[in-house]
Write a structure and sequence with these properties.
The structure is a homodimer. Chain A is an alpha+beta fold and about 400 residues long. The first copy, chain A, contains eleven helices and 14 strands. In chain A, the strands form two sheets. In chain A, strands 1, 2, 3, 4, 5, 6, 7 and 8 form an eight-stranded mixed sheet that branches. Chain A has a six-stranded mixed sheet with strand order 12-11-10-13-9-14.
Chain lengths: ~400, ~400
């Protein structure tokens, strides 16, 4: 599947490691409508600050991305570097530098060297191709073990529109956007405010509903470029039905990528959906689900395949959600492990332990207080997580 | 060191495991003024609910404590059990059952059997002795690797007053009191409101300033009995100077125990003081210190002895504390690793890595925004933590 007007490429620039793809470029043959969502962390990396500034115009034509170094916490030199490499790319592509978005991922707090960019950007531009997206998905990997890329087409009033999106992210993953990068390109014709709305909404309900370790990063970025090459009737505020079709497609693409991120969570051996139902209010349900999803004791019990529902109650009890303990029921998939705040016995526990052996299962906590619910996707906490993160920079 | 009028004992009751002390009793030969602080978790174990109810009178004479089972999430049967075992102890001791406090620690969500209590309480009462406190400190251990007990005397206007306190706690440790039990006995003569004030203050600045994993428990309890046997001039609201002496002693006892808990944190290999200085407001400083102290990525970097200050910046950035990234400096003990939000270079990093090999060090984050500061004591996150918690119930 191609996305009309878009091409991509990746090269080995030796930014931190040798012999691996670490510099990527995504390019549209015409300026595209562009929308983005960036980290909520107070510490924002240079490329994020630059990206926010440039995206005010709602337009972009290229994304230059490197792994190995996040260009975060580098002060003015970091900002200058981000501008400088964007200028290099713009010159080589012969486009306005304001239309170049830069993204970086990797180690925080080390100055990024311009030399590998200067050396490799000509080759990068030369090798742009419709088939280059898989290489970029590889180039943005850090502790990821697999590249993450999703393609989807959607029929809008008889015109086929394509979406291609890739993501990276494996640790430092938490709501408010996970340490992740996601780039999506689509040939849909759409106006900026509608695209921005769809992207913001979809991020909130997909990437902001996953967690690996509760940490958020300085570089989280979701960027979408829509170049209109498909030639569909323009998606704007006056056509909510056809816009909705595209919004659903974008949402499902993000959902697939978000799930891939959790499944590939650092050291993860299983993906667990935490569903809190019967809450009095939505915010409380989400807070409760996130608190449980980030509890080290709950996550180590997942790893140990131990249906230790007491730890779930304890995590729930320190969340900001109102509930009465004697109304709570807890189920692992369809096995009810606790009712009215009390354990359902040894047989239920044996069955729940069997459920936990699965690669993926759903933990449902019903508060029996109201009608609100929320879901968060998390993974277990294994020894491998510690190994990966204790040795990350060595 | 004895504490006048107090005795203690522990026995093997086989509550969960055989051949280990798991049932303890602390007793005052006269009713004592008693103060307590209990978990803020919305899910409170039966003994906590009973303890809060009984402590309204500000009096207690005995504490019955078991390990192996937390008697939490057990509904009405759990409450009935807590009352029943307190009655057993009261009868054997020939005191009012309202003066018996019960505490439990261990697995959540399993009904506690009364039989081991019925069988062992007579022997427990028979073996009460002034020297029995070390045995109780052993009996309350769960994943603790060492018993934690502190003794202190303080001279109040010529009268020697003694304090003996013990604690347990190793995992599920977070501010709002850590999953911990702490029992202190003192022969000081003191009025209830003054004692309660001292205990609440001391807990806030000691046990509420440590964290192992950010989880809080259903059973956290600090109980202090003061029986007046020392015969000092009574500590009351009209004598702030002499009260202050005692308050300082109590604070230092709690501080010592809190430190022992972190050092014995599940799988911990080092104790790290997180000090946030130069904050605009106190609450922000504390929130920032706690966020850093609980970040899995920061804690795994401690374990890896990697001065990965970027992760510290990232954790700081997701806290609720206001700061400007380009003003922040970070130091490992006396080694400045970052200034004005930027790294201090490779030599500083090598020196900081050397500091991190120590069993204990201080991480100072200066925001350079104001005059407020806060400290939290934490430990690193090792593979052993995962092992302990994945296999806890098996």
């Amino acid at each position: 599947m191609k996305v009309k007007g878009f091409s991509a490429a990746a090269v080995q620039a030796g930014i931190r490691y040798q012999d691996r793809l670490d510099l990527g470029l995504i390019y549209s043959d015409r300026p595209a409508v562009a929308a983005g969502v960036f980290t909520t962390n107070r510490v924002k990396a240079a490329p994020v600050l630059l990206g926010i500034e440039r995206l005010r115009r709602g337009k972009a034509q290229a994304i230059l991305v490197n792994s190995g170094n996040a260009n975060a916490c580098n002060g003015e030199p970091g900002m200058a570097l981000a501008r400088r490499v964007s200028t290099m790319a713009a010159r080589q592509l012969e486009i306005d530098e304001e239309l170049v978005q830069v993204a970086s991922t990797g180690v925080i707090g080390e100055q990024l060297d311009a030399a590998p960019f200067a050396q490799q950007i000509p080759a990068l531009v030369d090798s742009l191709s419709e088939d280059g997206f898989d290489a970029v998905a590889r180039a943005i990997m850090t502790t990821d073990t697999v590249p993450k890329i999703v393609r989807k087409t959607v029929d809008i009033d008889g015109t086929l529109v394509s979406i291609l999106a890739m993501a990276k992210g494996s640790g430092m993953i938490m709501p408010n956007m996970a340490t992740m990068l996601c780039f999506a390109v689509t040939d849909v014709q759409i106006v900026f405010p509608v695209l921005q709305g769809i992207v913001a909404d979809s991020v909130e309900n997909t990437f902001n509903r996953i967690t690996v370790d509760g940490d958020t990063s300085t570089n989280d970025t979701v960027l979408v470029m829509a170049n209109g090459a498909a030639g569909n009737e323009c998606l704007d505020e006056d056509h909510p039905e056809r816009t909705e079709l595209f919004a659903q497609a974008m949402h499902s693409v993000f959902q697939e990528l978000a799930t891939m991120i959790v499944v590939d969570g650092e050291g993860a051996t299983k993906a667990v959906t935490i569903r809190v139902t019967g809450a009095g209010e939505k915010g409380g349900a989400l807070n409760a689900a996130r608190t449980i999803a980030n509890s080290p004791l709950v996550k180590t019990a997942f790893f140990g395949e131990d249906p230790n529902w007491g730890r779930i109650m304890a995590a729930l009890g320190r969340s900001d959600c109102f509930f009465r303990p004697d109304r709570v029921s807890i189920a692992f998939d369809d096995v009810v492990m606790a009712e009215q705040g009390m354990g359902a016995g040894a047989e239920a526990e044996r069955e729940a332990a069997r459920v936990m052996r699965r690669d993926a299962f759903t933990l449902t906590i019903d508060l029996n207080e109201g009608a609100e619910s929320a879901e968060v996707l998390t993974c277990d906490f294994s020894k491998e997580y510690i190994t990966i993160n204790a040795d990350y920079r060595s």
